[in-house]
Amino acid sequence: MVVTKVVQRKPICYSSIARLFSSSILDEFATKGWSQTASEIVSASDLECSIDKFIRLDEFYDRMYLHLFNNYRNEYVYKNALVEKLLLGKHSLNTSFMLTEFRSGCCKADVVLLNGTSHVFEIKTQYDSLDRLEKQIATYAKQFNYIHVLTHECMLDKVSMLVDDDIGLMILSDRYTLRQVRKPKSVKNQTRQDKIFDSLRKSEYLNIVKETYGFTPDVPNTQAYKICKKLFCKLNPEIAHDTMVVELKKRGENNNVKDLVTFAPASLKSLMLSSRFKSSTVKKLRTIFQSPITDFLSFS
Q1: Strand order in 146-151's β-sheet?
Q2: Which CATH number describes the domain made up of 89-188?
Q3: Which segments in the chain show pLDDT lower than 70?
Q4: pTM, whole model, 2 decimals?
């Protein structure tokens, strides 16, 4: 009797796949022409046997993203869905902008959408704890107009018990759609000028002071922050909020970013939006997305 040895394959490591969605790896592809890190991830994830080695890089990323969506719906999947379905699906890069990991008080807002007003999205995946949710919501109410919690359907009941009726609730469905369970209410009248000011860059608060008061303080840099903050805090809270929206939207006036988001594969929209690639890297990325993955990954 011939005994055939059965080789058991290791289960795919989806948390390793998630590491592929980083700007550092794409920068390696563009500047070095390949990535040792990405090659090791593919090998460790036991994906080599199932990958067509002649697919393009953009197709490769879309397939890896599908793995994440179906098996390991992490925070990146939710962020990317917001960019695809909301920023690009309902709005436009010409009139709106999204910021990720935006500093707000002692918290980092997962996603901030700026159009004619401000929307902040706190993402709670099925792997997340809800221990900090109430504190995060209270912090965002001091700076943003509309607050949303985007979560998995299995977390919806727990989330709804922790937040007020003013807070919007959304889920990312198994069909890859954003379903709004409850619309948010405006909380712009609760915003605080000092909290808004501290989230702005120096150039941004100087622009606001000049636009509002007609001058910028002629003082040493060491005193500019204190004086500008005092002037900013004299504004009506709602006006302070609206001036913040105008300035933050200007961060999106970068043709490199718009170009990358437009031409990047669907799976990388969020990563392109939050990246800070050099112009030369941007040009290379546009080309390499259409190149076969064997140009960038080594297979054992």
Answers
A1: 97-104, 107-114, 118-124, 146-151, 168-172, 178-182
A2: 3.40.1350
A3: 1-11, 48-50, 299-300
A4: 0.91
